[in-house]
Each structure stands twice: as structure tokens, then as C-alpha cells.
Write a structure and sequence with these properties.
The protein is α+β, with helices and mostly antiparallel strands. The chain has 15 helices and 19 strands. The longest helix has 17 residues.
């Protein structure tokens, strides 16, 4: 613990000695440093490899893209100040702001920096799709017309960029908000090569300063950042960001309780009762030191069935439906998740992604009488003649597996539970080896299509994320319409109704973002993608 406290003072001294702070709202010498911990470590800060939260969080504060999302996940301008879509619904033209500059680097010559131009995006996007880069985000541009311009992208001039798709795709603009699509400077990337991820140069509200891979990562305020707040004040408000790498979650929690870390995300099982009431509220004794943030999270948790009837452990339709009726999602969430989730009684598409004027179709509610009727209709009255079903789950969902196991037994279905983790488990799911498995889907971009694709034939695993290998021509036809025509969004409930009727999954719940934040922190926006955007964050001044 003393080591962590010492490192905090070292950071304060280090930053204080290297920067002349320019605080927009005061003329004092207070340092406003936002601190958080990344227990899993950060392998790279290169946005081309921002495949998970550990990379997305820091990289999104160093880099910018053409567009971004607001707290309600609306797509709004970023480096592109406006854009239009041609009548063919395939060609986007973006107009870039002319006041966006890369962070300083010797690769830019005597001026140490330069403005971002359209050609930088052409380079960045082609780098993303180049197989030699090995980016896990290359799929984002699978839909571009590679015969157009340079790989699907064209710089008309320094401030105009065009992207042409090979077919209309409604969610494309939302996909461009992903960290993968950030702009990077060719001079620096080619100078540093694979070391760019440890020495990143972007355009973001913070700039890279130092990285002790085993101890701390420090970003400093970008004094030349191009965005300002609604009053015209320059962003960001913070002077620096300090990320620590404490691997032990209990030690991380203690550092938060001591005020040395400004926020923690999620709830570790060992700390749940210390923090929360049974109703999922922050215990009153903590109100003076920190607060709790919650918001809907575009993360759907589910159990999947393999839909290949040739699989030796294939589970037939009425048994799948019976299992969906067999347990109370509300009770499960109350007792096992402290009510910090939303019951998923329809399909995997979170309610917030449904268009206005539509609602989820009728799914499955707790009804064990209905479940028993379905088993009887299937020829398994009371479960007689039905062999045990094996559920493969991860250890962190064992409690839910055991709950469903207990409830299923009440209607005569025996479930045997296996636990598995890591790459081997994911590979078995992707290869269709498991008849009944636990899975989740966190949205990459805010559109219902990102959930419907889990059931489209073209996305069957192992090539895509349709791990149940569900296939239905009527669903596919609806999916294509929804993906290609914004006016077809009202068809989303119809597509989901087909999934409900075929029952390839047991939807469990829609997750909730949960954060605990030091009372000194304000303007810390929370959103349904659980990103952290630090450019608007304020922190009460700390005396040197």
C-alpha cells in the first residue's frame, strides 16, 4: 500500500516538474490528475488493435476519428464537422475541420506538428485493412468498395474525404465511431513501426507522456486540442491522466477506498456486500466519499443452443422453449445480481435499440406450467425419456448456471454443468462443438443490426459470430432490409419474432454499467457502450 501512495506523490512531482499547467477556470497551481487502474494491463495503445475495453479506454482519449457518439449514442461530429450521403446511399462525403493537429513529434520536422488532412484518413483506413498490420478491426471496412479511390477511400482535397460502400449499410456511420477508425500520422507510424503502440501520437484531448509497463502510464493535457465546451472553454479540463496496473482486485479496491484511484468499474464478488444493499443501491455510509453510476449497457448475456440437428446432443425446439419458461429472470437478477441488470424476456436486442414506436415482441416469462406442457407435447412428460443436457459455462456465471439447473429440475429437465475458460472454450463455441453454452454479446456500434447479425446465415460460425448456427431464410431477408434501408428499422420486431419462435437462445439479461466514482470527480459521462471519455471530466483541485 505504501508503494502505491509513494507512486502517487512521484507522479505529482513528475508532472509538476514537466508541465506548466493552464487551467481554464483558475489561475492556481493545483494539479487535476484523473487516476484509474487497469488490472489486466494494457498491451498496446495503437487504435488499430483496440479490440477490448482495456485498450479502448486509454486509446480513445489519445485519438479521434471522423465522428463520435454523445452520451445517448447519437452520432455527432468529431474531426469531420459535417457529412452527407449520396442518393445511392453508398457514398459518404466528409468535410474535415482545419484546426485539428497531431500531437508534437520530431517526425513532423521543425514545426513538430501538422494539421490533419483527408489523406491521413485514407492512410489510416488502409493501414487498418492491410493484412500485414494484423488489425482485429479490419472487418469494419469489409463493406467498402475497394475499386473506388485508394481501397475504397478518396481524398478529394485536404478537407474532403469520400468513402464508398459496395452496398448500402445503415449502421456504417456508427461503425466509424469505433476506436479502430482513429486517424494516425503516417510519418510517425512508419518511423516507429511496431513501437508505435508504445509511443502513440494522435490528436486527442490528452497526449502520451510516459509508460512504465509494470507500474504506470501517464497522459498529459493536450493544450492545442480542437474541441471546446458549450461555453467556448477549451477542453480538456484535467491536467493529466494516471493509469496504474495493480493486478490484484482487492488491492485495487483498497486504493479506491483510500482515494488514490478515482473510479472503479464493475463489482467484484468479494466487495459486493460492502458496497451495495440487496436492492442494488450504494450503502449510505459511502455517500460522503464516492457515488455510484449506473446506465443501460449494450451487453446481452445469454445461453445458446447449437441449431445443427446432426449434433449428437442437439436440443429440440419444445425442450428449448420449455427451458426458457422454466425460471424467473427477475428472481435471478434480484438474488444473484443485486437487481443490477434488466431481465431479457424477448431476444438479445436491448430495448434501447428499438426504434421509437416499436416494442419487443412477446418472448418468454416465468411459467413452469407452460414449460411442463411443452415437454409433454414433445413426448417427455415430467422429463421421462429426456437425457441430461450439458451446459458449458464460465466460472463467473456458475451461479446462474446452478440457478437454472435447479429450476429446470422442477419441470423434469436435468442439466449437467461444465465450466471452461479461455481460448479453448471460445474455440469450441465458435466451432459449434458445444450443444448448450453460455455467451454474451457487447455491441461494437449502437444499432440493432449488431445483434440481429448473430442470427444471420452469412455470419454462421466459425467464420462469423452466429455461434448457434441458426439459419432462417425469412429472417435473413428481413436482416438485409434492416441493414440496408433506414426506413426498414420498423421491421426489427418482426425479425426478432422469428428468433423467438425458433428459440436458438435463452436470453438472460441486459447488463448495466456500474461505476463507483470519487466525489471529487464530476462531468464523468456514462454511456451504454461503457466507454470513458475524459475530456469533459472535472476534478476538485488538489493542493501540491
Amino acid at each position: 500500500m505504501n508503494n502505491s501512495l509513494n507512486s502517487k506523490h512521484i507522479v505529482l512531482l513528475l508532472i509538476g516538474s514537466l508541465i506548466v499547467f493552464s487551467c481554464s477556470n483558475s489561475k492556481n497551481d493545483h494539479h487535476r490528475i484523473f487516476t484509474y487502474n487497469e488490472s489486466k494491463g494494457i498491451p498496446t495503445l495503437d487504435p488499430a488493435f483496440a479490440r477490448n475495453q482495456t485498450i479502448i479506454w486509454p486509446a480513445s482519449n489519445l485519438f479521434n476519428g471522423l465522428v463520435q457518439t454523445d452520451t445517448l449514442l447519437n452520432v455527432i461530429p468529431c474531426i469531420a464537422k459535417n457529412w452527407n450521403l449520396d442518393a445511392d446511399k453508398k457514398t459518404y462525403t466528409f468535410t474535415l475541420s482545419n484546426n485539428v493537429y497531431f500531437h508534437a513529434h520530431s517526425a513532423f520536422g521543425d514545426k513538430k506538428t501538422r494539421a490533419v488532412v483527408a489523406q491521413d484518413f485514407v492512410y489510416s483506413f488502409n493501414r487498418l485493412t492491410n493484412p500485414t498490420t494484423g488489425s482485429p478491426g479490419a472487418w469494419v471496412f469489409n463493406i467498402v468498395d475497394t475499386l473506388f479511390g485508394d481501397g475504397g477511400f478518396k481524398a478529394l482535397n485536404d478537407s474532403s474525404l469520400q468513402i464508398r460502400l459496395n452496398k448500402p449499410f445503415v449502421p456504417f456511420l456508427g461503425m466509424l465511431t469505433m476506436t479502430y477508425c482513429s486517424v494516425v500520422p503516417q510519418e510517425v507510424v512508419e518511423l516507429l513501426g511496431h513501437k508505435f503502440g508504445q509511443n502513440p501520437i494522435g490528436t486527442g484531448p490528452f497526449k502520451f507522456h510516459m509508460w512504465d509497463l509494470n507500474d504506470r502510464l501517464i497522459f498529459l493535457k493536450n493544450p492545442h486540442y480542437f474541441e471546446s465546451d458549450s461555453m467556448g472553454n477549451p477542453l480538456p479540463y484535467l491536467d493529466a491522466v494516471h493509469i496504474s496496473f495493480i493486478a490484484d482486485k482487492q488491492s485495487e479496491f483498497m486504493e479506491f477506498m483510500l482515494g488514490n484511484i478515482d473510479f472503479i468499474s464493475g463489482i467484484h464478488a468479494t466487495n459486493k456486500d460492502e458496497l451495495l444493499t440487496r436492492a442494488g443501491k450504494l450503502r449510505e455510509r459511502h455517500h460522503k466519499t464516492f457515488y455510484m453510476q449506473t446506465a443501460p449497457y449494450l451487453n446481452s448475456e445469454y445461453l445458446g443452443f447449437i441449431m445443427n440437428e446432426n449434433h449428437p446432443d442437439y436440443v429440440e425446439l419444445k425442450v428449448r422453449q420449455a427451458l426458457n419458461y422454466a425460471f424467473s429472470r427477475e428472481r435471478m437478477i434480484a438474488y444473484l445480481r443485486n437487481n443490477l441488470a434488466v431481465p431479457a424476456t424477448a431476444t438479445l436486442t436491448p430495448p434501447m435499440l428499438y426504434p421509437k414506436g416499436t416494442k419487443h415482441p412477446q418472448g418468454f416469462t416465468f411459467d413452469q406450467s407452460k414449460a411442463r406442457e411443452l415437454l409433454k407435447e414433445a413426448g417427455y412428460e415430467g422429463g421421462k425419456g429426456l437425457k441430461p443436457i450439458t451446459l458449458t459455462t464460465t466460472p463467473d456465471y456458475l451461479d446462474i448456471g446452478e440457478y437454472i439447473q435447479h429450476e429446470a429440475l422442477q419441470i423434469g429437465i436435468q442439466i449437467e454443468i461444465e465450466t471452461a475458460t479461455g481460448a479453448a472454450f471460445r474455440q469450441k463455441v465458435a466451432n459449434g462443438e458445444l450443444a448448450f453454452f453460455r455467451a454474451s454479446w457487447i455491441a461494437d456500434y449502437p444499432h440493432a443490426e449488431n445483434y440481429l447479425l448473430l442470427f444471420s446465415t452469412e455470419n454462421k460460425s466459425p467464420a462469423g459470430p452466429n455461434y448457434t448456427q441458426f439459419s432462417n431464410p425469412k429472417f435473413d431477408a428481413l436482416y438485409y432490409k434492416i441493414a440496408q434501408d433506414d426506413d426498414a428499422k420498423m421491421l426489427i420486431p418482426m425479425a426478432d419474432s422469428i428468433v423467438i419462435s425458433e428459440t436458438p437462445v435463452i436470453p438472460l439479461f441486459y447488463d448495466v454499467v456500474v461505476r463507483f466514482v470519487n466525489n471529487k470527480i464530476t462531468n464523468f459521462d456514462v454511456n451504454a457502450l461503457n466507454n470513458i471519455n475524459l475530456k469533459h471530466v472535472r476534478k476538485s483541485a488538489i493542493q501540491d
